[in-house]
Amino acid sequence: xxxxVYFQESATEVPVREKTKTLYLEADSEMDVRLKLKDxxxxxxxxxxxxxxxxxxxxxxxxxxxxxx
Length: 69
Known about the structure:
Strand order of the largest sheet: 3-1-2-4
Shape: globular
Distance between the termini: 14 Å
Order of helices and strands: EEHEHE
Number of strands: 4
Number of helices: 2
Structural class: alpha+beta
Oligomer: single chain
């Protein structure tokens, strides 16, 4: 499954929408995504499962790049 992760680069900073970044990750579940990103000091706001038309839309977006962990 492909997940889109919304995050702030530092877990110690207050989340600010304008500084939110995203990444795409293949994992078995939301918990698996969080475990894979545990060693990074991210403040994860949302983990969203992508499927169907929404996944196709994201894959056609110029910023789509699947992270390999």
